[in-house]
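Q: What residues go here?
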């Protein structure tokens, strides 16, 4: 076994060329060309070869520890943190935490190797890439904003499953708005959009999927304007709504959802956040950190956002608005209730008038005629009909129905005391007198 000399492929090639050179079969200039070395270096190698043979060509560093190897204490500390706090983190995210929070001087690939060594990370096989048509980013910030909702266990087992509404700029990749909500609905998107408009202004266009909030999916709808409530509100604000044909078309927000499901969930776990209210309080800090890491500069520096105008009454525009026609009795039906209009003008002036029923997020109803509100009273509730609920709102509806209502307290019957005035009156059949109206007159004893 002592006669075996381990050599690398490069060292074996050098030994063969130097053997030919030593035996005079080739010249030094030709040997230098073969080994891609200078003639002077070939001369030094030949001198070493003649003195020590093949053993002189073996690197003296082989078997010795590297001067740049990871410090054992740092390696042990990193492994302990990876196993206790960051076991399900990815190598990139774990490297950020180790360097920024714990100030460990490690490379990203070093962390990856440690996680593979500890069995915390399995190298993923590269999938065959699927080719999709390339679309270049928009040129200006606020020119196109991709929006989407992601149902997920954002708080893991610390809170119920909810949805996260995501607004991301196409030109820069900046997160513009994040909001937790029980389910994707028109009002939840209204609330997120209102906060976004008041901070940054109005974008040129929204890019979304074909959810019923953004698009009427009934191809043979006979009535209506052809717009959803969200589409109608954005049209009044001068914002175009574009629906993507495939998820890959709005890949920026889809990839952002995957990143958020990894990073945001783990960040909230480290901070012990266990409710939507606490999550909303943390989101501005997370958005600032996310944008600092992943946002890019737009091709053009101009901001395409437009300021809100005085006539952009968001409190009225961002409501559910349904057209109705008043009956001859000045009544209108909306959401299983009948509303009776109260007006001082003659009743015939409002018969068959076209009005707009507006409902805000708090469930408050306003009935408008030519832009002015009308007074009303609820005449009587209409019979409850079957409701049409989307799959994303089904859980929220079932939870509301399954929540047991508090039983009404039974009132004890009132028993008057012995000295109550009621006890001074008695009805005797022989003394009761019937009046002409059929009432019974009672005598006091």
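A:
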């Amino acid at each position: 076994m002592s006669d075996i000399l381990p050599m690398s492929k490069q060292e074996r090639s050098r030994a063969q060329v130097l053997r030919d050179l030593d035996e005079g079969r080739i010249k030094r200039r030709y040997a230098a060309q073969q080994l891609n070395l200078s003639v002077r270096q070939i001369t030094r190698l030949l001198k070493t070869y003649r003195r020590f043979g093949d053993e002189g060509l073996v690197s003296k560093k082989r078997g010795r520890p590297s001067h740049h190897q990871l410090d054992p204490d740092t390696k042990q500390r990193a492994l302990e943190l990876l196993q206790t706090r960051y076991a399900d983190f990815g190598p990139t995210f774990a490297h950020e935490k180790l360097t920024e929070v714990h100030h460990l001087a490690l490379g990203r690939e070093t962390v990856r190797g440690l996680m593979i060594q500890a069995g915390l990370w399995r190298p993923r096989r590269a999938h065959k890439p699927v080719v999709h048509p390339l679309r270049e980013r928009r040129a200006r910030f606020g020119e196109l904003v991709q929006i989407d909702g992601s149902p997920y266990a954002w708080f893991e087992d610390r809170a119920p499953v909810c949805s996260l509404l995501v607004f991301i700029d196409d030109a820069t990749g900046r997160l513009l708005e994040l909001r937790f909500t029980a389910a994707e609905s028109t009002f939840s998107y209204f609330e997120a959009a209102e906060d976004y408009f008041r901070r940054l202004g109005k974008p040129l266009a929204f890019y979304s999927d074909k959810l019923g909030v953004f698009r009427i999916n009934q191809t043979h709808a006979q009535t209506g304007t052809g717009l959803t409530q969200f589409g109608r509100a954005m049209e009044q604000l001068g914002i175009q709504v574009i629906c993507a044909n495939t998820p890959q078309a709005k890949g920026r927000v889809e990839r952002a959802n995957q990143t958020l499901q990894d990073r945001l969930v783990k960040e909230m776990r480290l901070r012990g956040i266990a409710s939507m209210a606490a999550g909303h309080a943390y989101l501005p800090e997370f958005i600032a950190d996310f944008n600092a890491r992943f946002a890019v500069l737009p091709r053009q520096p101009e901001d395409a956002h437009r300021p809100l105008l005085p006539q952009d009454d968001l409190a009225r525009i961002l409501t559910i608005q349904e057209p109705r026609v008043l009956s001859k009795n000045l009544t209108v039906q909306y959401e299983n209730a009948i509303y009776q209009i109260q007006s001082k003008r003659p009743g015939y002036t409002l018969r068959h008038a076209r009005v707009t029923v507006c409902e805000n997020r708090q469930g408050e109803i306003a009935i408008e005629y030519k832009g002015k509100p009308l007074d009303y009273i609820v005449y009587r509730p209409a019979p409850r009909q079957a409701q049409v609920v989307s799959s994303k709102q089904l859980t929220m509806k079932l939870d509301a129905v399954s929540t047991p209502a508090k039983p009404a307290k039974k009132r004890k019957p009132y028993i008057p005391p012995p000295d109550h005035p009621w006890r001074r009156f008695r009805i005797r059949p022989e003394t009761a007198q019937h009046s002409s109206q059929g009432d019974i007159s009672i005598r006091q004893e």
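A: Context that may help when evaluating the design: Residues 72-117 form one domain. Confidence is low (pLDDT under 50) at residues 431-445.
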